[in-house]
Amino acid sequence: MNVLTYLHGFSKRAYTVMEVRTGFATGLPVLSGSFFGAYLTGEIHFLYMILFFIAGFCFNIVANTANEMRAYLAKEENEATFTHHKGSEGLVRGDAKFLDAVFVLLLMIALGGSCGLLLVFLTKDLWLLAWGLVGLLAAITYSLGPKPYLLYPVGEIVSGFFVGGLACYLAGRVQIGSGSWQLLVYSVIPMILTVFLMSTNNVGDYEKDRGVRVTLPHVIGFRNAILLVIPEFLLLFSCWVILLATQTIPCWQFLVGCLIFYRQGWQRWYKDYWKISAVYPEMGKEYGPRPLLLIYHFNTWMSLLFFIQIMGRKYL
Fold first, then answer.
1. What is the tens place of the pLDDT at every residue in 191-240?
2. Is residue 7 over pLDDT 80?
């Protein structure tokens, strides 16, 4: 193989197997968790934040790429399952080859692992090292190995725990230097937002996954999987109320969060989603990105608001 010929267009091919959009589903909870931890202490460690963001993003890409590799090897994907999301063409529908996916996987492990090890070296936090290794193992074994756990109805909670909750909590812990109950309560919110994303994808893939893997909607039923969002949201909102009631966050920030939940969670997603009685071919394309927008908006706005308050305390 001519190396120069292979490298030509590699970045474009690699992009199609990475699912960069969902990679930020980890990166943004890391960002808001970091700013929340800094908000609690009044001091931002930007280097720690950047290193953690890169590591978290890379490990999510590892999980995405491993998932694409498994789908290709198991012949689970075809034109009928294509959602036509730009940048998610993958190994079946795009120009990328299996070797491209292998290189992406190794590159992301190397980059994310290097940033994680440097962060451990700087913070001297061995708990961070331990959870980082467990998180990397979970990212790989989600799809690859003799018994990948995506075959079982635990993917939503495991992904929510690692991608949303744990990533947010550890990022905040790095800023604080230790754990805190406020950070634990706050981390439940990104965890459940990630569960929303995973559950919506599983509901949209209800028929496609039948006979291939057993997801939670197969166990509790299509409609019940949609309605399960309601008690999950009540838990999320209870955590948001606790942060207000304990004066951890100001009232105006609480209201901004409520506005995001209403606009991105209700109006743009659940208002129509909860009425669906049966899966249809375009469901994944139509509803899959909507919880992702909720993740984007909540974590981005909270990061910005925490940053503004930190700067306000420091300079005003």
1. 999 999 999 999 998 988 887 889 999 999 999 999 999 999 999 999 99
2. no
- Greater confidence (206 vs 16) lies with 206
Residue 169: closest CA among 222, 125, 209, 205:
125
CB contact at 8 A, 71 and 90: yes
Backbone dihedral region for residue 75 (phi beyond 0: left; psi -120 to 50: alpha; all else: beta): left
4 falls in which pLDDT band (50, 70, 90)? low
- 285 falls in which pLDDT band (50, 70, 90)? confident
Q: What residues does each domain of the chain span?
A: 11-315
SS (H, E, C) the chain: CCHHHHHCCHHHHHHHHHCHHHHHHHHHHHHHHHHHHHHHHCCCCHHHHHHHHHHHHHHHHHHHHHHHHHHHHCCCCCHHHCCCCCCCCHHHHCCCCHHHHHHHHHHHHHHHHHHHHHHHHHHCCHHHHHHHHHHHHHHHHCCCCCCCHHHCCCHHHHHHHHHHHHHHHHHHHHHHCCCCHHHHHHHHHHHHHHHHHHHHHHHHCHHHHCCCCCCHHHHHCHHHHHHCHHHHHHHHHHHHHHHHHCCCCCHHHHHHHHHHHHHHHHHHHHHHHCCCCCCCCCHHHHHCHHHHHHHHHHHHHHHHHHHHHHHHHHHC
Q: Which two structure tokens, joined as six digits, stand for 256?
A: 């901004």
How far is 19 from 252, CA to CA, in rounded Å?
35
Orientation of helix 10-18 relative to helix 20-41, angle to 10°: 70
